[in-house]
């Protein structure tokens, strides 16, 4: 095992493996550090009934794609792990599994130094492919919850039987929060859901999966530079829907109609009494407006392209909140557990290179940072909506591979002092240079 590589990739998930595929195709010596094993995050941070929200046909990685018999279905968590393991086996990346990178710095000579659980390594260039979901984000208000309540983060939730008998409060209505609330609801557990500002989308519209329409419309390929508020776009929550049981809408109003209790944002805890902000109606209306706006865009596309598609009636709210749902006495309601579906924090403290903004977000242009030779891959909205998904990571990885190769060529040219076009009989390395 070498201690120096042209490129070090940190993270062996779909982003890191995609990067390795392109580097291997270019003949670039590299190593991929993975703290656990391929598919570890999908294996350990998802609940038992978890499935992808994106259809199987969108599971496309460089040189590898879904080839099963249900392209419009949705992979279960175990299927995703199997997909990634088979992808890695298809090209045998130089993966060091079980190796944790604990420190990254750039020396004065411009070489990157990586301290790991397996010792020190160096690299000319580094790709950070660890994604954005590092440390579970649990708000400090959790410390004030009544003693005796079982509290778990969404990454620790597995199934309803894991929690003690009684009602469950789920805080957060992004994709995880809504799907966990549904999981508990379908199991017959009394559920209380603190609703946030995440938008929703219909699972299907006018005869097709909504995501299929958006893909055909080019929505996944829109660059972040097309938006006036790029920084805010990157922070937006994903639309909630589900791929469960073949895929369907998640309609929080229907849950409420069927017995789930909905509230606004959790605002205060005083003993057993929880107080919620009076913003539930606004949050539900805003989520519906986003879903209907997506339908409007699909209608316009269908009309402009002259596509024959079945007409479909628009959504009509099946429930509206009243003013009595702003307080919850957890003792009186028999609440025994809280699931915090409140997202994750980024943790880049191990990176000792000044490439972060005041919020801790890496500043970059299509993954290229201001530090020569340091790149990020697999971030949501790194370049397009698909960047953090299976469907879009290949485009970003290929772009970064081109930048990495160009930097290598330039460095090599600077070191040996020759220009492109030098005869190979004079400098045999020129043949390699042209191929790279």
UniProtKB/TrEMBL annotation:
SUPFAM superfamilies: FAD/NAD(P)-binding domain (SSF51905). This is FAD-dependent oxidoreductase. It comes from the Bacteria. InterPro entries: Auxin_biosynth/cation_transpt, CHP04046_FMN-dependent, FAD/NAD-bd_sf. Transmembrane segments: none annotated. GO terms for molecular function: flavin adenine dinucleotide binding; monooxygenase activity. The keyword rRNA processing does not apply. Keywords: Oxidoreductase. It holds the Pfam family Pyr_redox_3. NCBIfam families: MSMEG_0569_nitr.
